[in-house]
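Input.
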Amino acid sequence: MPTVRLNGKAIRNWRDFHRESRSAFGFPEFYGHNMDAWIDCLSTLREGDGMSRFTLGPDDALDVEVLHADILRRQAPEILDALLDCAAAVNERYEENGEKPALRLLLR
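Output.
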C-alpha cells in the first residue's frame, strides 16, 4: 500500500498543516490551503488527474500516517479532529460512488 506521512511535530497551526499536506501528498501549485481543497484533492486518487502525486487502483488505499499524533493532539487538537473528519468525508465520497474507501488514517 502506498503511504504518506504527516509529521505531527511540525504542525502547530493551519498554515503548517497545509504546507505539510501539500508537500506530502504532492498537491498542485494551485492548492487552496483549506480543508475543502484537501478533500477535493484526495477525492480523485483513483482518477490520476494530477491533484496528488498518488494514483490508486480500484482496490488500493492510501495509508496516511500521522507521526507524533500525540504531540499534534496537544499542539493543535482542532487540526487533528478536522483531519479525522475530513478523511472520513473523503472515504464517504468514494463509498457514495460505489468504490472502496481510499484513505486509511494511522495515528502513530
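The helical segments are 14-25, 35-42, 69-75, 77-96.
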